[in-house]
Design a protein that fits this description.
Elements (H helix, E strand, L loop, with lengths): L13 H12 L8 H6 L3 H27 L6 H9 L1 H33 L7 H18 L1 H29 L16 H14 L16 H29 L4 H7 L1 H9 L1 H26 L1 H8 L18 H12 L6 H29 L13 H23 L6 H24 L2 H4 L3
Helix pairs in contact: 1-7, 1-9, 1-12, 3-8, 3-9, 3-15, 3-16, 4-5, 4-15, 5-6, 5-12, 5-14, 5-15, 5-17, 6-12, 6-14, 7-9, 7-12, 8-15, 8-16, 10-11, 11-12, 15-16, 15-17
Length: 445
């Protein structure tokens, strides 16, 4: 019997998935440059060790268990819906959609920053370049997930190879003993610690985003386990080594924050190394934008299928079978946000993400209570009390960062207030939905 095109489904394989996860979560240490400016030597490495342990590991374990239990498109939205009903699923999807718009707006802006090392006269053309990046990436996402996976593998190589060269030169440049600092935050202001936390949290977040297309992954349970472990090992190692080299290089931390790793590369190895890191930075931002757009574009579709958003958002492309309407809407909104400052976007992004992540932790605990015997190929070896204690770790990190943003009348206060107001908008959206369709409230699942 001849196989029809409709039954031939191309799915992501583990290495392609690992590349997408790497680009969704990290894309290399680009964006980590302000860390040394905020918390100095030792403080930077201390946060790099503490945050993954308290913020990332509980998140990764939660994602792996829930995804093994429900490897379906929509990922975290579907988990929250099953555990807590449509109202909280709307909160989860709405907050995720909003924070991803903010997140996506960061990458085209950073692309221009890294490109300016090669082309100093590029800054006046920032807006058209950003728009080109947004819409070219949208086109690739409309074509399908496998092209995105293949491109992600290429971009990952372009990101990693310059840093491997940078590592060799960086360690050979410093002839004396390598200093790791005193691993202390003593003498650092609370606001600076908060901004350091925001910086590290942003560079380590997004593990749950990679589950929204689980049905498009080959052998999803096994593939996610392998791919997440590979991606986490690469991310942590490259961050740690990069900061060690940076803090031993003698570069002014303010210059590093303003001019990025290409300036550090030029200091250590000459202009050619700065050029390589500049190219890597551009590849990183392109890969991050495409990978994050891939994840978020699947969420409005499943929300539309549940009548929480317009059914037009669930429309699939007749040829590529991708949620092209959702992708186009994402691209339109992000196009309007590229003029915001990096610091403001960072604070809003992490604040919204942390709130959405909290619902995933609660869902993990509720589903352990509601469906204790349901098959979970990956199961966190903790009971309910242990899970509660585990989820308190990332929530404490989140609360400290948020408290630091509200503790000052400076530039971090306004975006933090805006983020909290944006969180409250989810309830308004829910009430509008129930007003238009009262049956939604009567059928919470």
């Amino acid at each position: 019997m001849r196989t029809t095109p409709a039954t031939v489904v191309k799915r992501l394989r583990p290495l392609q998935l690992a590349a997408i996860i790497f680009l969704t979560v990290s894309g290399g240490p680009y964006g980590l440059e302000p860390l040394l400016f905020y918390v100095g030597k030792g403080g930077a490495l201390l946060l790099l060790m503490i945050v993954p342990l308290l913020w990332d590991m509980p998140t990764i374990f939660t994602v792996l268990e829930l995804n093994s239990m429900m490897p379906v498109n929509g990922g975290y939205y579907q988990w929250v819906k099953r555990a807590m009903g449509k109202r909280w699923a709307l909160y989860e999807g709405w907050w995720t959609w909003l924070y991803t718009f903010v997140d996506l707006a960061i990458y085209p802006v950073l692309f221009v920053v890294y490109a300016s090392f090669l082309f100093p006269g590029i800054l006046p053309y920032k807006v058209p370049i950003c728009l080109a990046i947004i819409w070219i990436s949208a086109a690739f996402n409309i074509i399908g997930i496998v092209p995105v996976g293949k491109i992600s593998m290429v971009l990952t190589a372009i990101v990693l190879i310059p840093f491997l060269i940078f590592f060799v030169i960086g360690f050979s440049y410093h002839t004396g003993p390598i200093s790791l600092g005193n691993f202390s935050l003593k003498g650092i202001g609370f606001t600076s610690i908060g901004m350091g936390l925001y910086t590290v949290m942003w560079n380590f977040m997004g593990w749950d985003n990679t589950t929204t297309y689980a049905e498009e992954v080959d052998k999803p349970i096994r593939s996610y386990l392998i791919s997440v472990l590979i991606a986490f090992a690469i991310v942590f190692t490259i961050y740690f080594v990069t900061i060690v080299i940076a803090q031993n290089s003698g570069i002014d931390f303010g210059d590093l924050m303003n001019n990025g790793f290409p300036a550090l590369g030029a200091l250590l190895g000459g202009h050619w190394l700065g050029v390589l890191l500049s190219i890597g930075g551009m590849a990183s931002t392109l890969g991050l934008f495409s990978a994050v757009l891939l994840s978020v574009s699947r969420v409005p579709k499943v929300m539309a299928d549940d009548q929480l958003l317009s059914p037009k958002l669930s429309a699939l492309h007749p040829k590529f079978n991708t949620p092209y309407v959702s992708i186009i809407i994402c691209a339109v909104v992000v196009s309007a946000m590229i003029l915001w400052s990096f610091t403001d976007l960072l604070i809003i992004d992490v604040t919204l993400y942390g709130a959405a992540l909290s619902l995933e932790f609660i869902s993990l605990i509720i589903l352990r209570i509601k469906a204790p015997d349901e098959h979970r190929p990956f199961k966190i070896p903790l009971n309910i009390v242990g899970l509660c204690l585990m989820t308190l770790l990332p929530l404490c990190v989140y609360c400290v960062a948020l408290a630091a943003a509200f503790s000052t009348s400076g530039t971090s206060l306004k975006p933090a207030i805006f983020a909290v107001i944006t969180l409250l908008s989810a309830e308004l959206v829910w009430r509008v939905i129930v007003w238009k369709n009262p049956a939604i409230a009567k059928d919470p699942l």
